[in-house]
Amino acid sequence: MDVVFKDLLSVFAQEFLSVVLPVLFSALAGLVVVYIKKGIDQIKANVSEDLWWALEQAASSAVKAAEQVGLQEEATDKLSYAVDYATGWLKMRGYKIDLALIEAAIEAAVWEELNKTNPYKNESLFAEQFLKNNIEDDIDEDGAG
Fold this sequence. Notes:
By secondary structure, the protein is an all-alpha fold. It has one domain. The chain has helices at 2-46, 49-69, 75-92, 99-115, 123-142. Helix 1 (2-46) crosses helix 4. The chain starts with a helix and ends with a helix.
């Protein structure tokens, strides 16, 4: 009887997680988007337009350079490389910017780069499409659709 209960519990846990995890990940992705947008807005509010342009250019160039170098290590190695690259890029042009600000700009540039290929840039469109696809999949599996 104990083995049957464990098997039943295991099946229930698998089914429960297969339903709950996609919803949680979608919600988490939405929170990340909001957090990054808020951070970008805070950065923009604290720097001049000229400095923001230079920071955007440095971060964008640094992200592309880190990808081209082909660092196979952890993401922290790419971030370190990108920060060093951006710092050098800015220093050559006479800008001295706090490293935390450079890191934040690089994170924003990475996010922007990732979303260039994202067909669901609008989070609500993503959620709507996700639910529609899952409902259609459920209907197809049940044979009702």
